[in-house]
Structure formats: structure tokens, C-alpha cells
Amino acid sequence: MTKKLMMILCAGTLSLSACTGYTPNQNAAIGGLTGAAAGLAAADLADGSDTVKVAAALGGGAAGAAIGSNVGARKCTYTNGAPAPCPTRY
User: Fold this and answer.
1) Dihedral in degrees, nearest 10, Cα atoms 54, 35, 29, 55
2) Which residues pair with 84 in a beta bridge?
3) N or C: which terminus of the chain carries fewer CB neighbours within 10 A?
4) Spatial contact of 47 and 69, defined as CB atoms under 8 Å apart
5) What is the DSSP letter of 76?
6) Where are the alpha helices (DSSP H) in the chain?
């Protein structure tokens, strides 16, 4: 893929992450797709082999899904790990 096409694809997937009001599962899916695209783009720009591209896409997808599932969770805890009420305007 050309660099310009990869940049357009990455910008498109990153713009999806700006949407709000999704469930944690939807956020995880969007995060996984975005992470996989970013990992693939980084490996492609570095002229990695096909194995490196697959590994980068899988790693980016896993990281994106983990981050995406926690976006907007609004879970507050005390320092001992017990659930706590979130402060106002949090």
C-alpha cells in the first residue's frame, strides 16, 4: 500500500474513535480495528515482512481492544481497590 493510502485509512479509523455513546463492547471493537490498522500501517511504513505486519496488526488490535473497552467506563475505586462513588463532573 502507498503511504498516502495508509495515512487516509488511519485518519478514517481514528475519526471513528471520536464517537461517543457506544457500549463497552462497541468501544472495544472500534479500538481493536483502530489498533490493528495503526499496527499494520507502522509495520508497512517500516517495510516489515509479512510476518512482522501480521504480528503488528495483532498486537495493535489487542492493545486497541483493551484500551477501547475501558474508554468511558467511569469506574472509580478507592486506593485499596474497593468501588467508590465517582465525583461530580467526572
Assistant:
1) 20
2) 76
3) C
4) no
5) E
6) 3-16, 24-45, 50-70
Quick check: 90 pLDDT over 60? Answer: no
Please check whether residue 84 is in contact with residue 68, taking contact to mean a CB–CB distance below 8 angstroms.
no
12 contacts 46 by C-beta, under 8 angstroms: no
Longest dimension (CA), the chain: 50
- Entry pTM: 0.60
Residue 2 has pLDDT above 80, yes or no: no
27-37 pLDDT, tens digit per residue, is 788 888 888 98
Residue with cell 477501547: 68
Residue with cell 509479512: 50
Pick the closest to residue 37 from 61, 65, 5 (CA basis): 61
